Amino acid sequence: MTDIGEVRFGGRAKWGRVTSHLVLAALGAFLTVVAFVAVPADVHAVRALGWYTLAATVLTLAVTAALAGVGQLPTLHAASVDGDEGRGVEAWPWEWRYDLALDLGLGIVLVVVAAIGAAAGNGWLAPSVVVALAAAWFLVRVGLSLSGRRRNEALWLTRGDLVHDTVNGRGRCGRDHVTRVSTIDRFVIADVDTATTQKLPPRPWRRRRRLNDPRTMVFDTSMTGHTPEQIADWLRTELRLEDPRPLGGSPRSATRRRHTRG
Fold first, then answer.
1. How large is the angle between the packed helices 11-33 and 44-69, nearest 10 degrees?
2. ∠ CA(76), CA(170), CA(208), 5° rounding?
3. Could you report the per-residue pLDDT of 143-202, keeping only the tens digit for each?
């Protein structure tokens, strides 16, 4: 078992995220006050949105408190990947669950708003259809997440494959097809000599990602307990790849070492 080291979660990386969540919570609190104080109670659609905003604000504060209390993000560990034994790391899961809860709540409240508009009539039918379509988009996205067509960021190494989970589903390739592992900023980049096998969500729910190339896996390490270099070194050790960084510092293509796995 390879000991790759780990890093504590703190400094700008941690408190920057905490601050951004607090700003969202403050905005949510302001909108909640507007919905319940500045708008008449008989405007039912706005009141429904106000209840959603209140719940989202409370949830945001809960996630912010959890994030502030985290000292160590997820690190390398064993896991079952599609029934195979594997080892790898995933991003802190509570932000993913938080996003999922917001999507579900927004989908439900938009259904309520669409129903209120349709019942009101008087020209509200067409806007209600638009709102219902938006609700369907969020609810389908929740369904895709629950079914595994969208996933929390993770990187797994099984006995046969390198597996990468993202919001665009699960991609994989054979270990022997990985030709180079390098890092850029907070990303670990694995180049492969064949297109990865991917289970993508339908196009309306597919997110465009940086370096979106079927021959490249790009793993974001920002919410894990390891640096990009630690993850890259672990992968090179497990896959028997050369370090692409020469003494001069500029990257070169890595080649597989001339010996078999033992």
1. 160
2. 110
3. 999 999 999 999 999 999 999 999 999 999 999 999 999 999 999 999 999 989 998 999
Residues 137 and 161 in one domain: no
Please tell me whether residues 64 and 102 are part of one structural domain: no
Long-range contacts of 19-28 (CB under 8 A, 24+ apart): 21/60, 21/61, 21/63, 21/64, 21/67, 22/64, 24/60, 25/57, 25/60, 25/61, 25/64, 28/53, 28/54, 28/56, 28/57, 28/60
The answer to whether the predicted template modeling score (pTM) of the entire model surpasses 0.90 is no
Least confident of 44-48, 139-143, 243-247: 243-247
| Packed helices 44-69 and 93-120: angle between N→C axes, nearest 10 degrees | 180
Shared domain check, 206 and 129 = no
Cα torsion at 93, 73, 184, 98 (round to 10°)?
Answer: 30
Half-sphere exposure of 259 (CA within 13 A, CB side): 7
Structure tokens at 119: 């019942």
Which range, of 91-95, 171-175, 186-190, 255-259, averages the lowest pLDDT? 255-259
Read off the tokens for 140: 């389908």
In the chain, the amino acid numbered 120 is A
Q: Whole domain around residue 175: which residue ranges?
A: 76-91+152-262
- Same domain (yes/no): 67, 178: no
Provide the domain count of the chain. 3
Q: Is 42 helix (H, G, I), strand (E, B) or coil?
A: coil
Q: Is the same domain home to 53 and 131?
A: no
